[in-house]
Amino acid sequence: MSFELILQSISKYIQLTPVESAHFTSLLYTRHLRRKDFLLEDGDICKNSAFTIKGCLKGYTVDQNGDAHVLNFAPPGWWIADMYSLLSQKPGTLNIEANEETEVLLLSKTNQEQLYHDIPKFERFFRIITENSLVAYQQRLMDNLSLPAEERFNNFCKRYPSLVNSMSKKDIASYIGVTPEFFSRMQARMVRKA
């Protein structure tokens, strides 16, 4: 198993010695998911943070009418979890599903707590990525409340450039908060303007 991608990601925020890197990677385990497999389902207690190595995960909720609302994607190099459930250890509301063949590295909450004890600089790393996630969610909420759909789509393209051509229109429409039909019409308008 190659841990190169996750170690590169971590090195943007903290520097690890070879011994620390080896200890960290010893706490991870790999999970392979086929397209449509769930990493986490609504009502489950989230016990792991997941780091995508290959493929893509999407996090979404389903409303009372059965409509899915995509909250985030985790392409390679991204972390994903139901943060409410992970931190509270109560049943969550997030579904995390593979959009395609996906490989993730999982870090259990227990191992993460052990990591904070063994290598305290990991507290800094996870604080930074949690803060970045909070900022992104806040910005997305403000965008959804104040920006037209075209600008929300442009922001999606900036945030997830690798996904623009690989995600289904339905998932992108759900992420930006429009119907698939509206999304198709909007894309056609944008093409005509270009």
From TrEMBL:
Which residues are in the Cyclic nucleotide-binding domain? 31-116
Q: Which domain of life is it from?
A: Bacteria
InterPro entries reported for this sequence: cNMP-bd_dom, cNMP-bd_dom_sf, RmlC-like_jellyroll
> A Pfam family this protein belongs to?
cNMP_binding
Q: What is this protein called?
A: Crp/Fnr family transcriptional regulator
Record organism: Mucilaginibacter limnophilus
Source lineage:
Bacteria, Pseudomonadati, Bacteroidota, Sphingobacteriia, Sphingobacteriales
